[in-house]
Amino acid sequence: MAIAATHSTSDLFHSPPPFLPGGRLLDNLARLQDTIGFGRVLLNSLGIAVVHTALSSLISAMCGYGLAKYRFRGRGLLLGAVLATMMIPFQVLLVPLFQMMASVGWIDSYQAVILPFLANSFGILLMRQGFVDFPDEILESARIDGSGELRTFYQVVLPCVRPQLGALVIFTFMTQWNSFIWPLLMLNSEDKYTVPVALNTLTGLSRVDYSGLMLGSLLATLPLMALFLLFQRQFVAGLLGGAVKG
User: Fold this and answer.
1) Residue 155: what are its φ and ψ, rounded to 5°?
2) Contact at 8 Å (CB) between 116 and 181?
3) Picking from 102-111, 131-140, 173-182, which range would have the lowest pLDDT averaged per residue?
4) For residue 217, is pLDDT > 70?
5) Consecutive H or E run containing 119
6) What is the rounded CA–CA span in Å between residue 66 and residue 214?
7) Is 210's pLDDT higher than 80?
8) Which of 12, 104, 117, 186 is the most buried (most CB within 10 A)?
9) 245 has pLDDT over 70
């Protein structure tokens, strides 16, 4: 992909294909910017992914904490309902969600892309497992010292589940960054396109800009790589958390 991004599309179909970097990187970058405004769509995707990840991670953490540490009637039933939603195919939700967004006038808006999937069942269950082993005695001590529920959650409990939270941040950001079908349905204006939707426009009926696709895909992976390098320790610890007892 990196090598193809430095060649023209015609060069990629030579026999044998190029195995060394070429000199068309800047030309491809300029054409990519002129064709789809890649800088703008990159910022669109980054803004949507950051806002979605922050809100979704917060909601998942709060829901997981409630299911793990609060005792109330129907808690097991609610947990079962959350598990059941994981078995619903995404394609089944497209038509009713589209009708909901149309009914409130949110078609071609960023909130239609961000809000419908904030409550993520995987994130809720992941955070719940992180909170289950948190000692109840610490919670009682914080409450006796006069700490409110929100302060206890944000200052006492949440810092102790950073591995699970880091894993959730990476997973949520990656899912939203790579999302294609839902933004394609919701966004009609080219200036609001995300990276996957904008790159799809480079694929025509009679011509495909392969060098532009390779360069755009290469640039689109950089934020994911940076995020993983930033949270890699928490990600690995979050995946292994709870695997070994004792």
Assistant:
1) -100, -20
2) no
3) 131-140
4) yes
5) none
6) 44
7) yes
8) 186
9) no
Residue 64 forms part of a structural domain: yes
Six-digit token string for 231: 């949270």
User: Given a cut of 90, is residue 147 above it in pLDDT?
Assistant: no
Structure tokens at 173: 């950001």
Distances 109 to 86, 136, 189 between C-alpha atoms, Å? 26, 43, 9
The token pair at 54 is 């922050």
| 126 lies in some domain | yes
- For the chain, how many structural domains are there in total? 1
Report the DSSP beta bridge partners of residue 208. 203
The span from the CA of 10 to the CA of 59, in Å, is 48
In the structure, what pLDDT confidence band is assigned to residue 206 with cuts at 50, 70 and 90? confident
Question: Could you read off the pLDDT of 52-70 as tens digits, one per residue?
Answer: 999 999 999 999 999 998 8
CATH of the domain at 195: 1.10.3720.10
Is 45:194 a contact under the CB 8 Å cutoff?
A: yes
Residue 14 lies inside a defined structural domain of this protein: no
Distance CA 134, CA 32 (A): 50
- Domain span holding position 77: 41-244
